[in-house]
Amino acid sequence: MSTTRSDSQSPSNWQISDSLPSHPEPYKIKMIEPIHLPDRKTREAALQEAGFNIFNIPSDHVFIDLLTDSGTGAMSEHQWASLMEGDESYAGSSSFFRFKNAVQDVMGFEYVLPTHQGRAAENVLHSVLVHDGDIVPGNSHFDTTKAHIEFRHAHAIDCTIDACFVPENDEPFKGNVDLAKLAKVVDEHGVEKIPFVLITVTNNSGGGQPVSLTNVKEVAAFCHERNLKLIIDAARFAENAWFIQQREPGQRERSVREIAKEVFSYADAATMSAKKDAIVNMGGMLCMRDEELFDQCSSFNILFEGYITYGGLSGRDMEALATGLYEGTEDDYLSARIGQVRRFGDSLTEAGIPIVRPPGGHAIYVDAKKFLPHLDQEQFPAQALVCELYLEGGIRGVEIGTVLADRDPDTGKNRPPKLELMRMTIPRRVYTENHLQYVRDVLVKLWERRDSIRGLKFTYEPPILRHFRARFEWE
Fold it and tell me: Could you give the residue numbers annotated as active site?
């Protein structure tokens, strides 16, 4: 694998091995949740009943759950203690102001609206900014983001750098926005049709890949020269800041919080699912600098979420979220978390299993095209691999491929993406190295019999966000 780069945003001294800890995780286990592996017959019946859609399988039929890192992390003793301080006043609770102060301290935004999760923040923001016929360029919009855009008869256009779509490429910042692609979109459609430019950190659909600080600065300068808003999807902003710290020249001596705050300083607003890097089970936010935009969004927040000082969250939720913002941006914690993901990914590469390189911060993405080259994308190879992973070992992953990409809203045809991936997402502070070793062993078994894996076809297909509720059968 080559580490040669031609773009100016990639440090010439970057190497495949990030600075990872040689010491154990910076915490110890205080409470456990028992899990068990259902027998093969039970797994087969559960998958059949679920219509070969892993979302439909009850959690007690899952042994190791790598479906998502959203809301599935383990909260700390300090977060649990924070719950007890929740002020459940409808308006102006003290818990809201602690939450607001934490957002201002860690992220630097003056205005914030709490929401029940990240897609709710998108709904509020897009209700103000996105209209019929608009164009929203960005770096690999994730499923709910794209759905909110297309629901409003607008279009999401991917402007990610080409290196993102070469799984074996070891570029350090494969989540970057390609400025030339962005300029082409703006020139073709005009600034009046572009409500904002979106940067997602890290780039989830592109393999959990980070965006460099240099790239954020350049995109911000591009936007502000043209009077365009820059919005950040901040679900995994802390992990992205850690990658900047480790991989970008001149950043190694700065803290993750310092870097994260600078990244946000270039944005006009940010949406965040706090269920990721704030390590809570429920919660999100919409952050802004502009008072007028805050005023417009407040009306929709009241309509969709609740009053502007709770927005679908209880006081105790906001307390845990505020504590989690600090814990999720601690350098030692991030080194341990990302180190665990990295070691898992490296173990799969050593076993010959094709994954997106380098491993991202929150998940390992298996390249389903290379794993199952005998299946066409219209046979949903990543979804088939997800089903086989469950059948073989009771492990729940998720498809990031043709099913998730949905149909083109204009033609009604499937739009197979450049990357056809099975994502195995690592919940924060939940699983040990032994759990991930088991996952590796199961994947090796699948790899050895990969030629026998069949494709899938729809038996039911919902019109929006089909991957959540679709049903399939083997071809």
Answer: 90, 142-143, 233, 235, 276, 467
